[in-house]
Amino acid sequence: MALNFLGPAPRLSYQLMSPIRIQTTQNVTVEYEVASVGERILAAIIDNLILIAWLFAWVLLFSLVGVQDQILSVMVALLVGIPFVFYHLACEVFFNGQSLGKKARHIKVIRLDGTPPRFGDYLLRWLLRLIDTGLFSGLIAVITIVSNGRGQRLGDIAAGTSVISTKPRQGAGALAPTFTEPGYVVIFPQASLLADHDVATIRQLVHTGLERENYLLLNEVANKVKSLTGIQTDLPDEAFLRTILRDHAHLAAQA
Q1: pLDDT tier, 210 (very low <50, low <70, confident <90, very high otherwise)
Q2: What are the boundaries of the signal sequence (predicted)?
Q3: Sign of the four-CA dihedral 175, 21, 210, 226
């Protein structure tokens, strides 16, 4: 199997978060780490700093060029107010479920049915942001996220989404071999066609791709595995590769 390894991944050090299991429409269970409240707060702080910097940059520019007060008010309202209002919606739509703050903290929005979030999902999250974070300085969002155990604020509950960590799980090394539960049902029997060294390479590349948020790498690995095994599936690349690793581990244990 010709897969180029990008080099050893550095050690990880971050707080372990509660996992959630997502049952996809193809009856595949995928496990993710829920983004912690702390990470989401840090992401929000980064986003707010970016917006504040945007505001001061334009105010300073207009002041330097001597724009009249009335015109200044209109320009600030247009060039600053609109980004303030639509920042999170635009970022999540165009950046695959991530604002700039979320990207910096390695967290992202996903749907709980395993399908990619749609515009309507992002729109619901954005509309309810006013309640979640606009009232009581975000206390409603914090209480909701902590209490429901699935990393959901009100906007997530309405949209059927959650916010998860994109970092590889702590203590998993290079995605340590998976030990399946009794009664586990193999999704892709073709996983038995992969040699042990192929699976080790896949595991390492998935770890690297997740850590570096290199989704192109995950796509290339997924396509390579599909070509070797003849598997045809619409599962997202990460979910597909994790399932292949679990299936191979189970089949190897039964051999």
Answers
A1: confident
A2: none
A3: positive
